[in-house]
Write a structure and sequence with these properties.
Blueprint: H1 2-7, H2 10-21, H3 28-41, E1 44-45, E2 50-56, E3 62-67, E4 74-83, E5 88-96, H4 99-106, H5 112-118, E6 125-133, E7 137-144, E8 147-154, E9 160-167, E10 185-190, E11 195-199, H6 203-207, E12 212-219, H7 227-236, E13 258-263, E14 266-273, E15 276-282, E16 288-291, E17 299-308, E18 314-316, E19 320-323, E20 332-334, E21 341-345, E22 353-358, E23 363-372, E24 375-381, E25 384-391, E26 394-400, E27 406-413, E28 419-426, E29 444-445, E30 454-460, E31 466-475, H8 480-485, E32 501-507, E33 516-522, E34 529-537, E35 543-545, E36 549-552
Parallel strand pairs: 1-3, 20-22
Antiparallel strand pairs: 2-9, 3-8, 4-7, 4-9, 5-6, 5-8, 10-11, 11-16, 12-15, 12-17, 13-14, 14-15, 17-18, 17-19, 21-28, 22-27, 23-26, 23-28, 24-25, 24-27, 29-30, 30-33, 31-32, 31-34, 34-35, 34-36
């Protein structure tokens, strides 16, 4: 039996000795001690030098313990607890046993009365630290070979999880990156859609730049005290988020609510959540950053985390917030009767472009020709909406009112890239700016009539005698999408090379059902991709471009 005690590990030896000491409790204090030790014995061992994730159920305490390795006298240790959601309560309890008691226990001396007397001291169990809140908290202390430590965690609000890091080795560096003496984030510039931030470098960046990077979190709700808390908040909004945001830039599959942008060595992940947009930007070791594409007159919260790429452990700077400037009133351009203007719309910043017109006639007509992209038109008369829609191609709005009615036209690009549109207002219905258009502006090709050096196309005409000009352009297959996207539908043949012109012809038919014409374009190269365009000219001379058609000649005939 003596040999058995001799070979027991220190932490089991202490548990066995302490349990023996309460073999026959006779007082309330001894009964309480027995309960504590029973809980202690059924706790889990906390790993040394490793971050542990602990899941807590509401109102159910969870206990972990640790002891110093056998053979060590006094040594410093640190415990860092990171709440990942709601505030928690946690404490550190020390269980101490005298050296004489341990010596007797190891020798197999089990005098129950003597042991009981030696354990009646209230100093046997002491709480050396306790905390309640949701901040990241670190305790530093000295561990004794004759003491066991219990950590107790409790969540009273709801089920949650935390991370705990214990280490007794202070010589091998830090799991968590270090924060500077002043961990605040400074706002050094505020614009309508941008905020510029700067912060002091982490000492870890200066020592291990290749393994450390900064990541910025931007949201409209509140600051987060840890990266763990930020991830939990995003997940609770209905999104699956990769662990620690995949901050090592490892590839992973994004969820449908996520957009990832990688440019200039910066990784941006935009999460579309119910409470708004949450952005995560990792910018390497730069400690100044301008956050782009924000909304005017909006309050944003900014958190910077310094991240160890090898362990994914992180430390949080003190978060800040800022409100972007109000958007200035858009400049309003005055429209004049019969004059055509072209408006280029900023798609990236989604700015509104306003035009106004004071009617000099009771009946007027607005004409819009979409040149590129996608545009939404909103027309008001004396402050009341009279028309609102997304336009494509050519669109007329004929409106009736009173003399001196004030019309305001607001234009906005509905996509991220820039859009452009031509606008005209006129009271002269009998002098249209644009030619009479067919029901469709599509060009049709006939696959069966394709040869190695010719293509046959067809398009619709009108009842009005008009001029049609056909142009062709040789393109590469990998450029087809770009060519079609970059087409300016408001540009005329004057923008084309002379060599691209195929022919011009006049035609019409009083029966609109038969107003169709075909043309066979010859002299083409085999197995080659061509883009064909048709321009329609009306009485005013302003052309309307049909939708481009891409056709490939046969490779073998």
């Amino acid at each position: 039996l003596k040999m058995f005690w001799f070979y027991l590990p220190l932490h089991l030896l202490m548990v066995a000795c302490l349990c023996h000491s309460i073999k026959a409790p006779t007082t309330r204090s001894q009964q309480s001690l027995k309960t504590d030790l029973f809980n202690f014995y059924h706790s889990l061992i906390l790993a040394d030098g490793k971050e542990t994730t602990i899941h807590l159920l509401k109102d159910i305490p969870k206990r972990y313990y640790f002891v110093l390795e056998e053979g060590r006298a006094l040594a410093p240790f640190t415990i860092t607890v990171t709440p990942c959601d709601v505030p928690i309560e946690w404490s550190i309890l020390a269980y101490k046993a005298s050296a004489s008691f341990l010596g007797k226990a190891a020798q197999g001396d089990h005098d129950t009365q003597e042991v009981s007397k030696s354990q009646k001291s209230p100093s046997m169990v002491s709480t050396i630290f306790n905390y309640k809140g949701n901040s990241v908290e670190t305790y530093m202390g000295m561990s004794s070979h004759s003491a066991l430590y219990m950590l107790e965690f409790l969540s009273t609000e709801r089920d949650t999880h935390i991370t705990v890091y214990l280490t007794t080795d202070t010589t091998s560096g830090h799991l968590y990156p270090e924060l500077p003496m002043d961990p605040r984030i400074d706002v050094v510039g505020i614009g309508h859609t941008t905020v510029t931030l700067t912060w002091k470098h982490s000492p870890s960046v200066l020592q291990h730049a290749e393994n450390i990077q900064y990541c910025l979190l931007v949201n409209e709700k509140h600051n987060y005290k840890s990266l763990c808390a930020a991830e939990t908040a995003i997940r609770s909004s209905g999104m699956k988020l990769p662990p620690t945001l995949a901050l090592s830039l490892s590839p992973y599959l994004l969820e449908p609510q996520q957009v990832m942008i990688l440019s200039n060595s910066e990784l941006s992940i935009i999460n579309k959540v119910s409470s708004g947009e949450v952005r995560q930007i990792c910018m390497g070791t730069k400690n100044t950053y301008t956050v782009p594409s924000l909304s005017p007159s909006t309050q944003y919260y900014f958190d910077v985390f310094v991240v160890n790429l090898l362990t994914n452990a992180s430390a949080a700077y003190t978060g800040t917030f800022a409100r972007t400037l109000e958007e200035p009133e858009p400049k309003v351009m005055e429209l004049k009767d019969g004059k055509v203007i072209r408006v280029v719309l900023d798609g990236k910043n989604q700015k509104l472009y306003s035009l106004q017109y004071q009617a000099r006639h009771k009946k007027i007509q607005f004409t819009f020709q979409l040149c590129r992209g996608h545009v939404r038109v909103h027309i008001t008369k004396n402050g009341k909406t009279v028309a609102m829609e997304n336009i494509s191609g050519l669109r007329y709005f004929s409106l009736k009112g009173k003399l001196l009615d004030r019309y305001v036209v607001q234009l906005r690009s509905t996509e991220q890239s820039n859009s452009s549109v031509k606008v005209q207002v006129s009271p002269h219905f009998h002098k249209p700016l644009f030619p009479l258009l067919p029901d469709s502006l599509k060009i049709k090709s006939f696959s069966k009539l394709r040869t190695c050096n010719s293509v046959t196309i067809a398009w619709l005409g009108t009842q009005e005698e008009s001029k049609y000009c056909v142009y062709k352009k040789k393109i590469e297959e990998d450029q087809m999408w770009m060519e079609l996207q970059s087409v300016d539908r408001c540009s005329g043949p004057e923008s084309r090379h002379k060599a691209e012109k195929v022919l011009c012809k006049y035609f019409h038919d009083v029966n609109v059902q038969r107003a169709v014409t075909t043309e066979t374009i010859k002299g083409l190269d085999a197995g080659t991709l061509y883009m064909f365009d048709v321009y329609l000219f009306g009485p005013s001379g302003i052309p309307v471009r049909y939708h481009s058609k891409v056709v490939k000649t046969r490779k073998k005939c």
